[in-house]
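User: Could you go from structure to sequence for me? I need the amino acid at each position, not a summary. Structure tokens:
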């Protein structure tokens, strides 16, 4: 029997992130992780880093199978 898979595309943005850099605004990015069991995680993708921004709108989308 064939396994049906749906491809999901995530568009990510954030509002009012807390600045964690000392002396400037943070440079956020988003990392998508999947629990692979046994306390381990696998990275499925990551966005670009947006410099000096507390409300980033990431241009790179992340895709995963659902």
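Assistant: Here is the amino acid at each position, in order:
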């Amino acid at each position: 029997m064939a396994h049906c898979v749906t491809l999901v595309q995530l568009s990510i943005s954030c509002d009012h992130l807390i600045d964690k850099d000392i002396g400037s605004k943070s440079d956020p990015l988003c990392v998508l992780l999947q629990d692979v069991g046994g306390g381990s995680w696998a990275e499925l993708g990551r966005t670009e880093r947006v410099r000096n921004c507390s409300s980033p709108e990431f241009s790179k989308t992340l895709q995963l199978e659902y």
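One structural detail worth keeping in mind: The chain has no helices and four strands.
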